[in-house]
Every structure is written in C-alpha cells, then in structure tokens.
Amino acid sequence: MKTILISFFILLFFLSCSREVTVTLPNASHTKLQQSSFEALPDFEQEDFAAVLGIFLKNCQTKRGKALYGELCMQAENARNAKAFIEENFIPYRIENTKADNRGLLTGYYEAEIHASYKKSERYKYPVYATPEDLVVVDLAAIYPELKHYRLRGRLQGNRVVPYHTRKEASLQDMNATVLCYCDSPVEKFFLEVQGSGIAKLDDNSSIYLGYANQNGHKYRSIGKYLISKNELSKEEVSLQSIQKWLLVHPKRVDEVLNYNDSMVFFSKRKQGATGALGVELTPMRSVAVDKRYIPLGNMLYLHADLNNTKINKIVFAQDTGGAIKGPVRADLFVGNGKNAQEFAGHLKAPLELWLLLPRKTELSSNE
User: Fold this and answer.
1) Does residue 252 lie in a domain region?
2) Between 152 and 252, whose confidence is greater?
3) For the purposes of burial, counting CB atoms within 10 Å of the CB of 14, is it exposed (0-12), middle (13-18) or buried (19 or more)?
4) What is the DSSP letter of 100?
5) 368: number of Cβ within 10 Å
6) How many domains in the chain?
7) How many CB atoms lie within 10 A of CB 252?
8) CA distance 301 to 139
C-alpha cells in the first residue's frame, strides 16, 4: 500500500510539472499560446526546409521582418542546414482558439483575373477605382492607444466626418477617384475586391497588376451568407463557384446581391504580382492572410488542416490580412493564380490548427 501511495504522488508531481502553461504575446496580449514541440507538428519532417528558409529571408527584407527576427536574419543567410536553423532558433506554440474544440478555419484565396480596358465602352463599363481623393482615414491610436489596430474611414461633410459611400451609393454617382481601368463584369470586379489583388488583362493584349490600396470603411458582409438566408443556396453547397454560377443564372439580381456587401476595395497599380499587407510578393501555398489583432504580420506559422481527408501540413508566413479573416485560429491561404488556383481556393474550407513559431529569445507573459 505504501508503495502504491508513493507512486501516486510521484505521478502527480510529474503531471503538475509537465502541464501546459498558457502564455501571451507582448504585442498581441489577447492571443493565448501553449508551448509545444516540433515533434508534435504533423508531418513536420516532410517539410521543404530550403524553400522555407528562402521565404524567411524574403520576410527579413521588410521592416517588420527585421524587427521580429533581428540577428536571426543574418544567421539565416549563412545557414547550411535549413531544418537545423529552424529547430535550433525557434519554439512552436499552439494558438488557442476561442471555440471550445480549439478548431479554427482555413480558407483559400487567389490572384483574380479580369478583362479590362483603359477606355470606357459598352462592354467595358465597370470602373476599378484608385483610392478616392475625398476618403479620410483617421488613425485612432494617436488618441486611443488601445485602438492601434483600427482606422476610421469616412469623408468630410462640412466639419464632420461621415461614413464613406457604400458599394450601392458609389455605383450611382461619379466618384472622386481615378479610374485605373474599366472591366466587363461587375461579378468579376467584385471577386477581385474579395481577393484583394489581381491581374487586369487589357484589350490591347497587355496586362497590369492591381493591388489593394484602401477600403471604404464599411464592414465586410458575406454574399454567400446572404444567399443562404434567402434560401437560394444551402450552407453545404456555398463556394466561390456556386455563388458565381448563381449570379450568372440570375443576372437581374446581381446588383441586389453584390450591394448587400457595403464594403468596397480600392486599388493601385503594382509592378509585380499579388503583394500582401506586409509589402512582399505573396508565395503560393506559403503566404497566409491572418487577423493581425491576434497574429502580427511577419510571423512564421505551422498549419495543419484536413480537407476531405487530404492533409495540408506546412510552414507558412503571415504576410497579408483580409476583411473576412477574424479570430486567432483563422487563416486564408494564398494559392496562386489561374483557373486551377481559383477552383482550389473556391473549395478550400477546412478545420484548422495553428502553431506560432517564435524565436527562442521571445519574451512571453505567463497567464498564471
């Protein structure tokens, strides 16, 4: 009996010493993390570490990347073994979700493509706008530091700031904005805004890259959810493809559905392909959009998702944001451009687990 009691107390001791301690990031105090190990990451050994190191170095070229990784950027340039560099200099932390099952959501996005012209015509009549000259953006952090991740957007009416034009209002008037080009489909233009970047194939056989420049300040609202609420599509069948097909079949209701989303995105011309909020060109299957309130841009992550019994396990980089990306365990995976990318992105919706790969010297705050 005495031996059993001693063994019991020894077991309790080791259990108490090995339990997971929840910690938080100093620059994202609402993100709860639990220290993990590389052995716990699904299929970590199968990763292409040389490719990861190359993207890490690209991250290091940004101001944010240098601030996050410091001397590790210089060490990475001389690293002979990419896997060893990551394992020796980083620790994985599982990101806790606000949901009880700790499961998040992985979706996908792509570089959209539209057909356009510099000249307005009967075919090309839907304007793609640059940031309007009368759009006012107020940085609230100057007055309220706790609101550093928020921007107030609107326009001046006398000496008051009022909400900027909604999507519907903008379609009914001449905007105080430069038109970058005119496209031939309001639906394709809408999905260009949802994706945040794209390629305009012009009628003279040339192309221009378009990247996110600003937004009108209105909250993003999902037209997929709108169609579900109207019993036009079921929750199970909603995808980018099913929404596009429905809009094609119901041309008289296109304005009704698109205008449900008051949010409107403005663009600028770019010299390269899809560029995220971090300021670097996105890498297919390696760049993700995140909610920067929980995951600061520039960070390296490991994701695990199960899409129809196909596992997606890989190191990715937080290089972008998105209006629909909300929550700590939420990511939008950039999958590239072209029809195949569009098809894959449109059907990518899978339960997600995320680990943040933090430098070993990162100072964390314990929640105990």
Assistant:
1) yes
2) 252
3) exposed
4) T
5) 5
6) 1
7) 6
8) 29
Contact 285, 108 (CB under 8 A): no
Which one-letter DSSP state was computed for residue 165?
P
| pLDDT single digits (tens) 253-286 | 999 999 999 999 999 998 888 888 888 889 999 9
> Contact, 287 vs 144, CB < 8 A?
no
Residue 217 falls in which region: left (phi positive, over 0), alpha (psi -120 to 50) or beta: left
Sign of CA dihedral 356, 361, 362, 368: positive
Asked if residue 230 belongs to a domain, the reply is: yes
Residues linked to residue 116 through DSSP beta bridges, in sequence order:
183, 202
Q: How far does Cα 44 stand from its chain's mean position?
A: 23
User: Which residue is it, tokens 């069948």?
Assistant: 237
CB distance 241 to 349 below 8 Å:
no
Q: Is the residue at 160 inside a domain? A: no
Question: What DSSP assignment string belongs to 194-247?
Answer: HHSEEEEEETTS-EEEEEEEEE-SPPP--HHHHHHHTTSS-TTT-SHHHHHHHH
- Per cent of the chain over pLDDT 70 is 89
- Band (pLDDT 50/70/90 cuts) for residue 144 is confident
Rg (CA), the chain: 23
Question: Could you tell me how many residues make up the chain?
Answer: 368
**pLDDT exceeds cutoff 70 at 367:** no
Q: Quote the DSSP letter at residue 70.
A: T
Secondary structure element (H or E) that encloses residue 306, with its range? strand 300-307
pLDDT-derived band at 15 (thresholds 50, 70, 90) equals very low
Question: Is 238 among the domain residues?
Answer: yes
Kindly report, residue by residue over 19-62, the tens digit of the pLDDT.
455 666 766 778 889 999 999 999 999 999 999 999 999 999 99
Q: Which domain holds residue 233?
A: 222-260
Residues 6+ apart with CB under 8 A from 368: 21, 22
Reduce the DSSP state of residue 337 to 3 states and report it: strand
